[in-house]
Each structure stands twice: as C-alpha cells, then as structure tokens.
Write a sequence for this structure.
C-alpha cells in the first residue's frame, strides 16, 4: 500500500463492509459495492476500515488504509487477530436463559475499555422467571457504572426496538452475543433484509457458507447514518495486547481501589498491604470478579505471540 499523502488522498474513498481472507467488499460514498484486493500477499483489513482504492476492471485494488480510531481483536488458538475497527460503541447481548458467561462478558468489556469504545450490556428475555437471577449477576456491573438495557425481543419486539433505536442511531455499533442470547433475533428486527444481505455478500465473495465466519456491516437507515456490525458466533476477545499490570486499570471495580497498595508493582493477588484485596474484603469487589481477574492475569502473564 502507498503512504498517506497527496497520492493517497487523490484516490477514491471506500468503507470495508465485509472481509474474508484477502477478499474485501468496499462500499463507495454513493452506496456502490465492489470486491477489492489489497496489494501484497497479506491483508489485515477489517470491517469498518476506511480505505483508498482504485479500479481494475470490475473490481478494485486497496492502495491505502486510513488511520483507525480504534481496533478490536479476537483470539484464535495462540493468535490474536483484528476483526473490527472505527466503532462508536459495543452492545454485548446476554440473556436470562441460558445462563451467560461472566468471563466472556468481562473480556468483552475489557477489550472495549482498552480500545476506548463505550460498551452497553443488553439483557434479553427479561420476561422469563430467571430474569431476577440474571439481574443479580449483573448487579456488580451496574455498580461499576455499566449501562444495562433490558428487553424481551420475542415477547415484546416493539418495546425492545423503541428502547434500542435511540441508542443506535447515528452510531456504528458492534453487536456481540453467544449462542442463545437472541442476537440473530435482534439483527433481524433491526435489519429486516439482513439474511438477504449476507447471501449477496457470500455470492459476491464467492466463499459460500464460509462467509458466515466473517463480520458484516448493516446500515440501519436509508440515510446511512447508523450501522451495526455483526460478528457471527461469539468472538473470544483477544487481550494479549494488554500487559498483566494494566489489567486492573481496565476493570472499573479494581481501578477504583488502586493507589492504596504497599508495593508499587502489586499484582493484587497475594501481596501484603494490597488495597485491592482490602476492597475485596469489604465486599466492594465480588468473588466472581476476583476469580476472573486472577485467571486473566495468569493468562496474560504467560501469553504467547
């Protein structure tokens, strides 16, 4: 790719709306979509990237990647790989049933915090009796200042949309949720032709069912002022760009207790005179959060690249 400057700025601007391997779909400011390929053998382009491109027949060549505002990583075995960029917010969807993973939720919130992306938690299936237990599990996150949006997508879709739409308008939102949380229902409510769009992207990229492993961009309105990025399945967030000693600063309940430790390099796991562990003893940090912190600290301390 060429360097930024007059040469790059003279090229057409495009938005990456789908990516699979070295094939990306780029949308022009006028709304036209075409397949583009980066120069060279390797591509790290992701959905949400802004690029400069030029035509080569019916397709295009990516010549320049515009600076990113932020970038998120997913974890794949021993690798961390980027998968979405230039986000305004993240919506992490959990549900009253099945029971959601607090570890997955925490990883998502840490990844968002590290990238400087505001995060919302959507609690679905609040019409079920198990909603009370789910609210109890989310109580520590509310206490940290997280915003939890309650909804019942199947029982009351109109109410859910009325609550969500004002928070999504004019923003690029990454929607995440493990299987069974209602993410597909949400996407189909917000973007009625989502399945058709996925089919078009699949045929265009000529990757068939494999396209379902990549993220997809959906506009929420004809004016193209708000958008969703759907990342199929649940991406296990890659946190290996985070140093273990940085971890506590990205967890609000831990961060609130920092600055009171005897040792400046305290890991908040076993050292005497630890202000964070004193906060745990006072009940300001829940036992489940303590377990998650210690497991993540161990993981980041032994990370491989």
């Amino acid at each position: 790719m060429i360097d930024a400057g007059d040469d790059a700025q003279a090229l057409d601007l495009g938005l990456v709306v789908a990516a699979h391997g070295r094939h990306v779909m780029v949308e022009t400011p006028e709304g036209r979509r075409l397949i583009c390929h980066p120069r060279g053998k390797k591509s790290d382009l992701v959905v949400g990237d802004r690029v400069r491109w030029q035509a080569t027949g019916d397709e295009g060549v990516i010549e320049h990647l515009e600076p990113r505002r932020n970038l998120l990583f997913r974890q794949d075995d021993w690798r961390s790989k980027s998968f979405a960029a230039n986000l305004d917010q993240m919506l992490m969807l959990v549900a009253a049933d099945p029971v959601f993973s607090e570890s997955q939720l925490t990883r998502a919130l840490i990844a968002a915090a590290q990238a400087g992306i505001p995060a919302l938690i959507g609690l679905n299936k609040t019409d079920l009796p198990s909603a009370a237990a789910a609210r109890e599990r989310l109580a520590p996150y509310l206490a940290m200042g997280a915003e939890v949006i309650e909804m019942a997508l199947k029982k009351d879709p109109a109410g859910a949309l009325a609550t969500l739409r004002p928070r999504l308008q004019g923003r690029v939102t990454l929607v995440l949720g493990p299987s069974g949380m209602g993410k597909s229902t949400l996407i189909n409510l917000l973007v009625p032709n989502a399945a058709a769009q996925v089919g078009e992207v699949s045929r265009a990229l000529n990757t068939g069912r494999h396209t379902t492993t990549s993220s997809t961009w959906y506009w929420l309105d004809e004016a193209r002022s708000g958008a969703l990025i759907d990342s199929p399945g649940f991406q296990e967030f890659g946190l290996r760009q985070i140093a273990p000693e940085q971890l506590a600063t990205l967890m609000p309940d831990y961060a609130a207790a920092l600055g009171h430790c005897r040792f400046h390099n305290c890991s908040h796991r076993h050292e005497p005179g630890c202000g964070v562990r004193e906060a745990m003893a006072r009940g300001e940090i829940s036992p489940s959060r303590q377990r998650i912190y210690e497991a993540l600290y161990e993981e980041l301390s032994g990370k491989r690249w």
Notes: The two ends are 25 Å apart (CA to CA). Confidence is low (pLDDT under 50) at residues 208-213. The CA atoms of residues 96 and 161 lie 18 Å apart.
